[in-house]
Amino acid sequence: MTNVKSYIKEHKQRFLNELIELLKIPSISADSAYKNDVLKTADDIKISLEKAGCDHVEICQTKGYPIVYGEKIIDKNLPTVLVYGHYDVQPPDPLDLWHSPPFEPVIKKTEIHPEGAIFARGACDDKGQMYMHVKAMEFMTRTNQLPCNVKFMIEGEEEVGSPNLAIFVKENQEKLKNDVILISDTGMIAPDVPSITTGLRGLSYVEVEVTGPNRDLHSGLYGGAVANPINVLSKMIASLHDENNHITIPGFYDKVEELSKEERAKMAKAPFNLEDYKKALDINAVYGEAGYTTNERNSIRPTLDVNGIWGGYIGEGAKTVIASKAYAKISMRLVPHQDWEEITQLFKTHFESIAPAGVTVKVKPHHGGQGYVTPIDSIGYQAASKAYHDTFGKTPIPQRSGGSIPIVSLFEQELKSKTILMGFGLDSDAIHSPNEHFGIFNYLKGIETIPLFYKYFTELSK
Amino acid sequence: MTNVKSYIKEHKQRFLNELIELLKIPSISADSAYKNDVLKTADDIKISLEKAGCDHVEICQTKGYPIVYGEKIIDKNLPTVLVYGHYDVQPPDPLDLWHSPPFEPVIKKTEIHPEGAIFARGACDDKGQMYMHVKAMEFMTRTNQLPCNVKFMIEGEEEVGSPNLAIFVKENQEKLKNDVILISDTGMIAPDVPSITTGLRGLSYVEVEVTGPNRDLHSGLYGGAVANPINVLSKMIASLHDENNHITIPGFYDKVEELSKEERAKMAKAPFNLEDYKKALDINAVYGEAGYTTNERNSIRPTLDVNGIWGGYIGEGAKTVIASKAYAKISMRLVPHQDWEEITQLFKTHFESIAPAGVTVKVKPHHGGQGYVTPIDSIGYQAASKAYHDTFGKTPIPQRSGGSIPIVSLFEQELKSKTILMGFGLDSDAIHSPNEHFGIFNYLKGIETIPLFYKYFTELSK
Fold this sequence. Notes:
The structure is a homodimer. By secondary structure, chain A is α+β, with helices and mostly antiparallel strands. Chain A has helices spanning 4-23, 35-51, 127-142, 165-171, 219-222, 229-238, 261-267, 274-281, 294-297, 340-353, 379-392, 407-415, 440-461, and strands at residues 55-60, 67-72, 80-86, 106-108, 117-119, 149-155, 180-183, 195-200, 202-211, 217-218, 303-312, 321-322, 325-334, 360-369, 372-373, 397-400, 419-421, 437-439.
């Protein structure tokens, strides 16, 4: 693949400007107030795919937000790469912790990004990483170096659990037929330590509601005499972990994949410094399941975390009230072999069973997805490995991610092909957090590495 | 005391209209957004006291909201009654549970209020009950039947713990000098079961903050590996009660007044139906400290309730985040002899001590007050008892209330006089809750009963 470096150098400023324009649109799929922004983003993606040389670019309607599809078929006998990404973003709150408005992108240098990083919601997850593929496509088509067929499928509901993508995939198996799926929605270990994600955690996300008395009560007249939904919810949540931080839901661990000593020893070799980790988060100690390291806890072990809790008076000052209701959003990260629907049911049954007399409990499943593991001896993995080696000068490290891309296991099931996760973000890029950013170095390295994946995948497929 | 009934009959509509106008002003002391409304309410109270015949009515400035003072001194040799009340109200949220806007008063009949009740925030607590005294004063002055001296002290910070009233009282001991203090800010057992509150619970109100990582984190990348402030806060709150619902804070019960078998037996005689109680709250069971009845749990026993909790993502949909911070507002109702400042310190010390590694905890005391008990053999209690007997045809039952009026114990300490709590509201009037209301029967009965208290107190003081 020739002159990819010079092409990037020549068009660098435009590549940055185009991404910045995309980041200005608050495409928050979780909040219906931003509906028009999400739809506008889909339109812009369509235009950018056309400009990058895709044919038959279309906005495919779903029951929710549309999926943008585009393709370039140059020869039916050549392999086909299906690129998946998403154009929606996480809600930006808490807004007061952002140093610049989440949808007014700014470029700032940081210790880990000496060449500068773009600060904006979605910069890394996933607009920035998705757009690397659009620009890599542009390079390959404009320089006539596209070695195989390409299909793009960019959705707008990933941050709310892709409720409609599954249906779309099931109904369009022929259209989406491919030899490998390529996704950049994960991270790499460090700017100088490329890595390929070989495992993802599954997810079960639920919302719980605890109802006590039929109205808010005066805590003086009723305090101590009726079940307080907030106290009760706290007690119920607390009981979901034992003193070793094992999850107490009966059957929760039954299908958990136990890694061998060898596999765990291999994992332990990945560069990791606990002191730096604590320093970066400003915590005096890590916390988690007894018997596992930090890297194991956030990758090969399942978790249960409260993502949000609310009830009673949360305004300024004081109000002496016993709330009628208390709520929590709870998510469980799952590991390969744990079935998310089964786990959701186990949670529901258990949570309802531990409700004390005096309250009623509702568990509302939000969404979920299965975990995933990809073998490192596949053609796809090998092609990605060679591509990284060319651009970073070293062989990438295979790593398990604690994150979830529920759709990946569905792809395998429905499209019968493996997914290669070429992530260029860093854990410190603060995705899902205030001040999310994406390094310019990482962005351009991605655009440089992706075409090489196409090249090697085509060669190795012969 | 002649023709009080006929006077009320004649002016009933005006008495209702004047109260309704007062209830239209959202005097929410807890929320600074309503500052001007609180101040306007003070002005209106001043005018109403003047119209009722008070002299030297003034708006006394404090560091917070002003105290409205007014008096009528007819003879230095006659006893003096000091009337205390408050013109501020609780925040009305949750607004969506109100059947009519909280500051647009409406009159509706209910099962327990066949003559109708005024629905509005503050209708019962305390604008309605405070205004009974203003109208009773009007009757006594207009009909030349005022038997003694009267002083009014109406404050605007009761719902936020009266932070400035204590200073005002300390600095104005001569001005506030009195023989008995009269307050209507409590309830009665039933429309046909008058009662006088002889005990109040103390209060300690705190806000806690649990901080984990220095920013919100992606629950996939960090879940299971760092302390989640919401999970931790839930665990800490849960640990504040043991399996018998005893509070676990060391030293918490050391000074709790233990009632004798006889006293508890006497209490148990007060009319109470557990099934009706559960039905009214729509709960299948009561809940509370083992070894005590419902009426004991909410009156003679101390409590710890979470009044509000928040953290993480509480918006629409789902967000897979580990929050940096989680918060709770916690209040403890205290019984006589428990010192609120000591209890606040015990809470702070204990709560900070149970914080696990990986988080930092802040405890911010909001406000508090001491509990109170008044003897039933005092002249004040006897005068009130006779007044109720005249208007209700039966002797009122002495009862302990679970609520708190922190200022009462301070009055005794600073002004050396006892407080008589003549409450005309009902527990079902939903004070501090959506759809707060006050029965027209109760309102008018209060106006009818109060002048008789003045009469009997003056007679018994001779």
